């Protein structure tokens, strides 16, 4: 465990992630299990499967991928984010967009978010790739919002926990599906669109 106030914490977290390790990272919403995203092509660590095993999550439900800046999404999707939504980034808004070739040949979609937390954006930038983020809990159980609970439940299953204090009462991100020139809110979270 390391505190994110430690000046080396972002580099340490990025080093763990770049080696295919699974970390619990604080976000601007709730704590999340994180690993290098598999659509980065160069990162084939099986982090998706590792996180699913820890959470007990079904294989079909995708993870949100965090990017370090709003512009980074253009590396992975040709879809233009409407200005009304783009203004919410960085922040707790997740947008689902189609992936472009060579990241997908099957018209797959991915949920991207540029978090409002500067420390986390620095970690992602240091990695050079998007990272997965999914709430810290067992599937079907409440999201853990205290560092003590997270450490007790998952310290033997993850490689690093970054402490940013408890996140009592935090809401998850709002998830929006972009399609046909408009959007549909799939999950109402802390951002109103």
Compose a concise summary of this entry.
Strand 9 (174-179) and strand 10 form a beta hairpin. The protein has 193 residues and is of the alpha/beta class.
Number of strands: 10
Strands of the biggest beta sheet: in what spatial order?
A: 1-8-2-3-7-4-6-5-9-10
Strand percent estimate: 15-25%
**Helix content class:** 10-25%
Major β-sheet profile: 10 strands, mixed
Which runs of at least 5 residues are low in confidence (pLDDT < 50)? none
Sketch the topology as an H/E string, one letter per element: EHEEHEHEEHEHEEE
Mean pLDDT: 91
Structural shape: globular
Describe this structure in words.
With 193 residues, the chain is an alpha/beta fold. The protein has a ten-stranded mixed beta sheet with strand order 1-8-2-3-7-4-6-5-9-10, with helices on both faces. A hairpin with a 6-residue loop joins strand 2 and strand 3. The termini are far apart. 39% of the residues are buried.
Comma- or semicolon-separated keywords:
single chain; 193 residues; alpha/beta; ten-stranded mixed β-sheet; 10 strands; 22% strand; globular
């Amino acid at each position: 465990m390391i505190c994110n106030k430690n000046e080396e914490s972002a580099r340490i977290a990025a080093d763990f992630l770049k080696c295919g390790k699974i970390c619990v990272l604080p976000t601007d919403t709730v704590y999340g299990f994180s690993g290098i995203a598999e659509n980065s092509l160069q990162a084939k660590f099986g982090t998706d499967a590792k996180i699913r095993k820890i959470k007990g999550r079904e294989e079909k439900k995708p993870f949100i991928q965090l990017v370090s800046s709003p512009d980074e999404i253009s590396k992975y999707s040709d879809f233009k984010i409407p200005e009304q939504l783009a203004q919410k980034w960085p922040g707790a808004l997740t947008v689902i967009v189609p992936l472009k070739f060579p990241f997908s040949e099957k018209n797959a979609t991915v949920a991207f978010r540029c978090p409002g937390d500067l420390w986390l954006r620095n970690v992602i930038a240091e990695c050079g790739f998007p990272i997965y983020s999914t709430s810290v809990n067992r599937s079907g159980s409440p999201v853990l919002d205290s560092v003590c609970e997270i450490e007790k439940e998952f310290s033997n299953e993850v490689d690093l926990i970054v402490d940013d204090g408890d996140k009592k009462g935090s809401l998850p991100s709002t998830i929006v599906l972009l399609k046909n020139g408009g959007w549909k809110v799939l999950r109402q979270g802390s951002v109103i669109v």
